[in-house]
Each structure stands twice: as C-alpha cells, then as structure tokens.
C-alpha cells in the first residue's frame, strides 16, 4: 500500500483568507514599525528576511512563529503581548524580558518622552480629519523652518 493516500493535514489552503489573528498580529507589527520610523527593508535586515517577507507578515499572509515573534518584540522594543492585545500603542511598555536591561538612552528616545506621548494622544483625539491633517502639515512646516535656522 505504498500509494495509499494519507489524510489531509488541517491547515490553510492558498485560496483561504488569512486567519484574523495573523492579520491582527501583522497589523500590530506594521503599527509599531511605523511608530519607530523603521522601513520594512530595515526591519527585514534586522531579522534576516526580505522586505517582501515582512510585507507578508504585516498583511497576515504568512504566520509569524513564536521565536520570530520574540525576535520582533526585541527589535521593536515591545512586549510580545503588544502584538495580541488592543493596547494603546503610544503607551506600550518597552520590553526588558529574559534578563535584558532596558536600552541605554531610554530617556533620550523621543518616542518615550512624556511630551511625545501626550502630543500623539491629543492629536488622535481630534475627530475632524481635515483639522488633524492641517495640524500635521503645520507641524511639518514648523519643523522644516527650524532646520533652516529661521
């Protein structure tokens, strides 16, 4: 009976939609990567993948294994639970697990400053999308003027 067919393993066929949990985890990877101003290419280099593979993770097309998720949490400086919960990403706790100490320069990290957290929180509390966009554009103009020494 060398040609006997084995029962099909349960799993996802190519035509099936991604698991909603994989999509959620991937969207949290994308969210945190964007918060840090990191490109898909740079994240891919950090974990030994191409940016196309990072894209598939972020879309939920490829499932992220436990060891890779742990590596992502270390690189993106969040706890693994960040990828599963609906916690406010601005207030996400940094990872310092498995005997690691917090990164040097923690206080100098702009994304961790109280002022940054309050600014981002206030920005996203603006319900009027047009007003929020104008504020964003104003901030960019003011930052550019600051660079020119005006």
Q: In CATH, what is the class of the largest domain?
A: Mainly Alpha
Q: Any idea what the radius of gyration is?
A: 20 Å
Q: Averaging pLDDT over every residue, what do you get?
A: 79
Q: Give the name of the CATH superfamily of the largest domain.
A: lambda repressor-like DNA-binding domains
Largest sheet properties: none
Specify the CATH architecture of the largest domain: Orthogonal Bundle
How big a fraction of the residues is strand? under 5%
Give the ordered list of helices and strands.
Answer: HHHHHH
Tell the overall outline.
elongated
Helical residue percent? Answer: 40-55%
Query: How many β-strands, per DSSP?
Result: 0
Query: Which spans of ≥5 residues are poorly predicted at pLDDT below 50?
Result: 97-107
Notes on the protein architecture:
This protein is 49% helix and 0% strand. It has 150 residues and is mainly α. The protein folds into 2 domains: 17-97, lambda repressor-like DNA-binding domains (434 Repressor (Amino-terminal Domain)); 105-150. α1 packs across α3. 13% of the residues are buried.
Topology:
Blueprint: H1 20-35, H2 40-47, H3 51-59, H4 66-75, H5 114-124, H6 129-147
Helix pairs in contact: 1-3, 2-3
What is the compact description of this entry?
It contains six helices and no strands. Helices cover 49% and strands 0% of the residues.
List keywords for this structure.
single chain; 150 residues; mainly alpha; 434 Repressor (Amino-terminal Domain)
């Amino acid at each position: 009976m060398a040609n006997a067919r084995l029962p099909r393993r349960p799993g996802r066929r190519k035509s099936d939609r991604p698991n909603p949990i994989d999509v959620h985890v991937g969207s949290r990877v994308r969210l945190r990567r964007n918060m840090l101003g990191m490109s898909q290419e740079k994240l891919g280099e950090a974990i030994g993948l191409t940016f196309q593979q990072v894209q598939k993770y972020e879309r939920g097309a490829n499932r992220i294994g436990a060891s890779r998720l742990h590596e992502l949490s270390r690189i993106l400086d969040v706890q693994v639970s960040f990828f599963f919960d609906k916690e406010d990403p601005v207030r996400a706790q940094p990872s310092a697990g498995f005997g690691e100490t917090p990164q040097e320069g923690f206080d100098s990290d702009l994304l961790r400053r109280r002022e940054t957290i309050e600014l981002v929180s206030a920005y996203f509390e603006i319900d009027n999308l047009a007003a929020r966009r104008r504020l964003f554009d104003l901030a960019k103009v003011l930052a550019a003027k600051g660079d020119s020494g005006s």
